[in-house]
Amino acid sequence: MNRVPDKGPRTIREINDLKPPEKRAIYHTLLPDWVFSMFGIDPTDYTVQGQPVIHVRCPTGSSAVELSVYDAPRSSDPVLYLHMGDTFNSQLAVLLVVVNDPESARFNIDVDTEGNPTQLGTKTRNIPEEIRAMQAGLAPGQIRRGLRIFRTAVPVFRKFVRSLEYRMFFVEPLFYHNAIMFERYGFMYSRGLKEMRDIHQAFQPGGELYARLTAENPFRQPNAWQTVLGRSWAIHDDILNRSFASMGIQMYLHTDKQGAVQTFPGGGW
Predict the structure, then answer these.
(1) Looking at domain 12-192+242-254, does it have CATH number 3.40.630.30?
(2) Lower CB density within 10 Å: C or N end of the chain?
């Protein structure tokens, strides 16, 4: 167990079983201040032009919550999306975090050429859109450029986790670059540190993954090994012969202290 006794709700399931006003009030504490100032959202009723733009999906009996923030009532993509929940062994896990710049170009990597969902490219892929996204400097799984202010949301989330009396929380990075990003925020590895180090070594000149880079494949260019972004696209393109998500990498962050970077990614973003 990684929490101590408390009189209030201590899990997502317990919050979800509260009355709607109570649980929504708790989840709204997850919203960083920039959400309101940047997009002109009314902090009293969470609306823009009188229409709601912050939505919380937290049904009674569920052990998960989804928080979506939009910059405008008719926007198709959230500027902030958070999905988290309880694990089977009473831990708190962040399943997905997305931060989008609504003013940036959109790349339809989330649907295939027939309009079917790709689950951000982890189920099927839209290769033409992925190439466009990559050429624009985006990472695998990104439909828009990020706002580069996710760091400001980390303290808010840590405060929320502490309010539930947890001493740590977990994340399972969907892509290689996600793991490196979480490292930079102080996350440590509970599973997968050796695998991450092996990937790093295999991308070095003379390594197995380095040998698989080729100018003939847009996702595996010869210089891809030099950057986190280049490596992530190559891994997304199955250079490991398996998906990154299937590796079961898990990371954690203590709520009361920072961790230390544990791998040696090399190169820039």
Answers:
(1) yes
(2) N
